[in-house]
Amino acid sequence: MRKKTLVSIIVVSALVLALLSGCSSKGSSSGGDTWKIGALYPQTGNLAVLGNEALMGAEIAIDMVNEEGGVNGKKIELVKADVTDPQKATTEARRLIQQEKVGLLIGTYGSSIMLANAAVADQNGVIYWEGGAVADSLTEQGYKYVFRTNDNTSAMAYAMADAIPDLAAEKLNKSPEDLKVALVYEDGSFGTAIADIVQRRAKEKNINIVFVEDYSASTTDLSSIVLKLKNLEHDVLLLSQYFNDAILFWKQARENDYNPKIVIASGTGQTTPDFYNGVGKDAEGVLVADVSTRINPDALSEEAKTMLREFEERYKAKAGKEPASHSVRNFISMYTLFKKVLPLAGTLDADKIREAALSLDEPYGSTPFGFGIKYAENGQNERMFNTIQQWQNGELVTVWPKEYALKEPIMLPLPEWKDRQ
Amino acid sequence: MVLLETRNIEKRFGGLLVLKNVSFEVKKGEILSLIGPNGAGKTSLFNILTGFLKPTSGDIFYKGRLWKDITPEKMCASGIARTFQVVKPLNGLTVLENITVGSLLKYKNLRQAMRKAHEVVEYLDLLEHKDKLASSLPIGLRKKLEIAKSIATEPELLLLDEPMGGLNSGEVEEMIKLIRQFRDNGLTIVLVEHVMKAVMNLSDRVLVLNQGVIIANGKPEEVSRDPAVIAAYLGE
Amino acid sequence: MSQLLVTGILLGGLYALISMGLNLIFGVLRIVNFAHGEFIMVSMYLAYWAYYYYKIDPYISAFVIAPLTFLFFMTVAKPFIVKLADSSHLGQVFITFGIGIVLQNLALMLFSADYRSVDTVYSKMQIALGEIQFSLARMVMFLLSLVFTVALYYYLKKSYMGKTIRATMQNRTVAMLMGIDTQKVYVFTFALGAAITAFAGGLLLPIFYVYPTIGFSFALIAFIVVILGGLGSIPGTLIGGFIIGLTEALSGYFISASMKQLVYFCIFILILVLRPAGLFGQRGTEELGVK
Amino acid sequence: MTMQRSLKREFSLVRIVLLVLPMLLALIIPNAFFRDIVILLMLWSTAASAWNLLGGFAGQLSIGHTAFFGIGAYTSTLLYINFSVSPWIGMFAGALLAALIGVVLGSITFPLKGPFFSLSTLAFAEIVRIISISWSDLTKGSRGIVIKYTPGFDKFIFDSPVAYILIAWVFMIAVYCVAVYFNNSRLGFYLMAYRESEDAARALGINTVTVRLKAVAISAGLTAMLGTFYAQYILFIDPESVFIVDNSLQIVLLSLVGGIGTTIGPIIGGYIMVPLGQFLRSALGDAVPGFHLVIYGLCMLLIIMYLPGGLVSLLQRRSFGGSRLKRPGRRRDEHGAVGNS
To answer: What counts of helices (H) and strands (E) characterise chain D?
Structure first.
């Protein structure tokens, strides 16, 4: 009998544990002189790299705001949660709202997590402020309280397709119609989404894609695709890859002496310093479609420049490395939220915030990406875009479009491997 | 009348011929002992009769009809129960439950089956052990449980594979009594056994198998005098 | 085409090498080691830090890391292995799976999720035979897999320890009766397997890159290779590696890269059903120590 | 007699309390997060006991059950999205499909034992996952499917968590009753016999093929129904969340912690591990990334290594978990080939 009670005790205590895990809300709920904000980012598992990268960007923005005395005198208190899949995202989002009494949710990286966060926030009448994930689907759900300052998949895919005439056709002196384009992507949600839109856009611009293939990012070998491409006559290679596979692909391209003439990648695998660390000098010349802070300064407002300078100092101090676009995205989104939207709203009330956000109207160039700010009814910032950047001596510099270009594109077409050192 | 009959059963494992045209019959109500040196093919024969092995050739007649491609479950359902020389108790279950699994063959309803199993338990006086886990039993009781399980299926023909192997003399005596009881209750029994004492005073008929061939078939005392048999055991 | 075959074979050698250790642990000891991938991951990190701090080349540090791993399992982790050997296979799955979780997230805590790789001179070197190209690093992996196969094969066949290991694999009880200290054999074999795995991990570094969750995909492949080749059969593992390597290259090339895993999983199930002992395992061995 | 006694045990006071407690607590405490945990807890406990029907009673240790879970989720969702079939109906369609696939898989992998069966189920689950990704015309691939939030009973979507709590609870009780039935019926006894020794079972007239397939079908079907529940609760499914191997392992882990092959064990396992994981996640969420999983992993290790029979082994003499979780090879003689051949 004693054992029975023992087990029952264990079970009950576990349930109490569950209750606690909810009620163990740290600090007071929103109100007083702090505002509690919930941060839902994947910090473990496969999405951890960019999840933590993105979170850091948000944290820096909040540090800055707090050091300057907070929003209308209210300090921002960030409550972090590790969400690695939709189920955990749903649970944690509920916890932050119900238990931690956060007045607002921010996130994230990874589209499935983003969708889960947004759904909970919108159901609970709380604002969800997206700072990193780019899937278009976020703003296609008819949510009322969901906003995204940064770019979306379409912007990225369009940039990839639209740059082909200038960066490929011109350099190879062919007309865009005659170009043969190959498209390779990882079959995750991001890669698939990019691939779909790129193909649609290419058709509009009558650029003909002659080869399309996908693969699982978890693979340990990509030689089969590399060899297919090697035996395929094509001028441009479009890539949409995650991390490990981006490095693996490029390493194996060299191993198998596959020499693409022009490579335009979407901004994930090839965007971060990890890619350069991974493949070293071989990264030189690779084109990447992404947002960038390495753009022509003349296109930026003074505020944007100072904002960027400060961010980069803080980031280097914090992480000891160069920031990737994902942290900057979150930084800018959160900076906009805390510096522009919340002061205007003066409260965490969702409708007030929505009102304030919709009323914003800032010209292009007012953020370090060159974005303006003008939210559409569906919450998407319309004044956003992607540029094409290129790896030049270890850093990504914008080379397209002209008005934002920092440097001229080099190595187009790419030299053969044997001619590289 | 004849309950079970085999005609020129032959079995080879690869090149090795373990049974060579083995033909014999089992009459209803008798105790037939199957003896022979190790490796004579006794267990193989059992496995063939119960469908655990397919014979290379030869026919098996049971209750007058020919049985093609037989399986253990079919044979058991038709009234042939067997025990294993290396006993196979259902370790995770209690003694009563072990036996219940057997009685479930005839009694679909668990409650009846358990009641039936309980009778078997009393019959084999395992009462004080009925709630023990099979895995916790000593070898003597395991052998008994092995038989109890098969009895519970209410067979007509019972194939016992060395039920007395590893038992002490006391237990052997008890086992002999038990087997005789079974026969008196109308069961037909085929017994593979090395304990000659048991074979001699139990069996109505003895079948001697040597290197896959039947070398003798008759009353115990005749067989024990048969020179071929003595040769087989002592070796030329 | 010839290029494709070469790539497939080289990949096969790589797979064989990372599976060799698992073949000892799972194939011989029947310990279902779900932490195999994490063993690889840890050794890759060790190699990485050795390179990062002391500029020790992975090919050299591998020769240090492997013995260290061996010692670690012979001494510190010994009681754990004994415990593992006594649990049911399901118990083993989850003990090792738990260890996997712990290791993976320790790595995350300590080293962050960043992708780390080394840039050695040879990691980019190419050898060209006419049309056919291949990377030096992969070639080294391939050759070493051959060396290991031969060495391990003869070790298990000829040496006394090898014989006791095989005896224990055949029948633990009998081995015990024959006065073999089966516990010692278990620990030794496990440590040996772990050491080989660690060695392979170090060699992977110049070709791949390391991050906390890299293990899983390797582990799955290793299991497939071991079962395909035959449990406990060292040459089998080599062949199994080649088969998977080629399957991956060919199906990826002729069907589709997204389908190649599908293809080898199907092959895996087929082999399991049609010839559970694997291509080169002796029949019936798959039943040993398994209910 | 014995029968009633065993039934009394299955519905003893302690157990009834155990089974009802979380549901009641969740109803009393109007705390959405707590309710959320209780719902997930009941969901996974139920999934674990559904697995246990096959893994525990029949000893077929599948680590691919997420395949059935996902098949259930996708079947009902696709029927709902494309043909606006009510998920209530879709749920049974999914169960049927999963059961069929389970039977096919079961008959293919019939000869496999121990780890080989487990690995084959793992491979099977991976195959299903890959198909779900690449057959994107049907499944929308990796992008996953968002189920529009439109409350309504026929739509299986509710605005109040109470509904989900009750449904999840009914599922849990239903599956518990199935487990009790297994434990006290011909089928259950035959499965246990098969688990303990296939030869002995066959010698006692048990058609091991059919009983095993029955178990697979029931287990797979019930798991699939839970997949539907998951989809309707989270309102978003994608291959990475419903077909991922972690689900399979989680399901087995709960049974293992609670006590395999027992009726109440898997449920207790869920009661312990789900809140634990959640507690660590939220308590250590602010700490270094990964910390909470390290702790979780360690807890899991301790329980499995030092309580091989699961928590239930504290409760019952008769949880063969202990005897199961000893390496069978130890008692080679009982698992050797038939007879002495």
So the answer is: 18, 2
